[in-house]
Amino acid sequence: MGINEAIAVTYEALIVIIKITFPTLAITTALAAGLTIFQSVTNINESSIQQDVKIFATLAILFVTGPAIFIALRDYTLIIFERIAMLQ
Predict the structure, then answer these.
(1) CA dist., res. 28 & res. 55, Å (int)
(2) Counting C-beta atoms within 10 Å of the first and last residue's C-beta, which end of the chain has fewer, N or C?
(3) pLDDT tens digits, one per residue of 55-64
């Protein structure tokens, strides 16, 4: 395995990680921003509300996107196993 193949594998791994994490991070960040604005407008200074909502939203998002995460990881793992088999 040369340096170009190692860079390609690393690049593909980063793309898979971004595909897996982006929906959860984007939705949770937008939700946190909305809750922060809501709390500042209504003068509610309770931080546990924001944490609870973000935890439940993150769990719901992961539950919904779980099959897509599984498929992305399975496909990448199969590609890596094929490349390992070609090394020998």
Answers:
(1) 9
(2) C
(3) 999 999 999 9
Residue length of the chain: 88
Q: What is the pLDDT of residues 25-37, one digit of tens each?
A: 999 999 989 988 9
Rounded CA gap, 34 and 54, in Å?
11
Alpha-carbon gap, residue 52 to 44, rounded angstroms? 15
Residue 6 identity (one-letter amino acid): A
What's the pTM value of the predicted model, to 2 decimals?
0.74
**Strands in 3-60 per DSSP E:** none
Q: Which among 53, 72, 61 is positioned nearest to 23, based on CA atoms?
A: 61
What one-character DSSP code corresponds to residue 70?
H
Please, what sign has the CA dihedral across residues 72, 73, 76, 81? negative
DSSP strands (E only) in the chain: none
